[in-house]
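Thread: quick sanity check before group meeting

JM: Hey all, I'm pulling together slides for Thursday and realized we never actually wrote out the predicted structure for the chain we discussed last week. Dropping the sequence here so it's in one place. If anyone has concerns about the input, flag it before I start.
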Amino acid sequence: MRKVVLIIGDVICLYLATSMAMLLELGKNQTDKIAFHLEFLPILVIMMFFMFNVYGLFSLIRKKLVDIFLNLLVAVTNIYIMAMAMTFFFRQFDYSRVVLIYSAI
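JM (edit): ok, ran it. Output follows.
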């Protein structure tokens, strides 16, 4: 049960970070761009599941706080590098890279 709560919390944090980044960069007036960014969020969640699993962030084993933050930093960096690469190679995605950087921070 604890693992499910942690996963749901991670997804909520990802949605909140991306939503705040969209508001900072795009404002409230550009609803068409905001709608597109919200459509891209499930892809980010899938990448988050994959990268967090690779770096052991879903493990319930006790770790040092430094190890957790380092793994989290590397996983988030890899997620956003993959997302930027997707938006570069697939031109139909008009995803703002500034929103990616803001939400990673």
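AS: nice. The chain has a mean pLDDT of 79. The chain has one domain: 2-104.
JM: adding both to the slides.
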